[in-house]
Automatic annotation (TrEMBL):
One of its GO terms (biological process) is protein repair. Gene3D superfamilies: Vaccinia Virus protein VP39. Keywords: Cytoplasm, Methyltransferase, S-adenosyl-L-methionine, Transferase. The gene is pcm. This is Protein-L-isoaspartate O-methyltransferase. CDD domains: AdoMet_MTases. Its EC number is 2.1.1.77. NCBIfam families: pimt (TIGR00080), PRK00312.1 (NF001453).
Amino acid sequence: MNVRLSGIGMTSQRTRQRMVDRLRSQGIRDEVVLAAMGSIPRHIFVDEALSSRAYEDTALPIGFGQTISNPSTVARMTEILRNGQDMGKVLEIGTGCGYQSAVLSKLSREVYTVERISPLLAKARKHLRETHCNNVRARHADGGIGIAEAAPFDGIIMTAASTHIPQALLQQLAVGGRLVMPIGTGEQQRLHLIERTPQEYLETVLEAVKFVPLLAGVV
Ligand code: SAH
């Protein structure tokens, strides 16, 4: 399927490069993030029927009522998280189809990702295997409490919207670490950046975004 599609250009390296050029024109400055996104075959992470739309700047359904974030949101959040530096250990909450995890895997030593929907996690694991993202550990759990035994994390990224910043995530952030997450509900969500300094947590409210809600418990 992918071979055939690349034959007609829908999922080719050239299509991916056009996505990267568009991200750059949309204001993404971190060339390391752009290179990572240029190297990952995003179409592998969506259902075959949607492959031809994988490089559009749009959110797409990934099953179970969830969506893969649009490329510009992935790029922007990753750029904020990375802040121009390679990362050590990173935690992602909301694995979904695994695309954001794959991007992080190119930019950090080790990625922990947590998903509450078991069959979705199984799909993500398959996608991550197929794209050789061997430094990603995917776990079936409620991510709202983080992963205490793997902490501290240099970066934490949440890809579902929460009404508040979970205390556990603040505790699991390394000094010098950064947490990026959407806060709010429905149409009223904004990205928040929390930086942990030796003395305190600094919070910056950034642009409006739209994510599915963070839900409690596992299914
Ligand atoms: N980063 C994903 C985006 C997935 S959408 C990607 O690249 O595809 C957000 C995901 O967060 C959904 O799969 C949803 O099931 C998951 N999620 C919501 N609440 C969660 C929780 N408490 N713990 C773990 N995952 C959660």
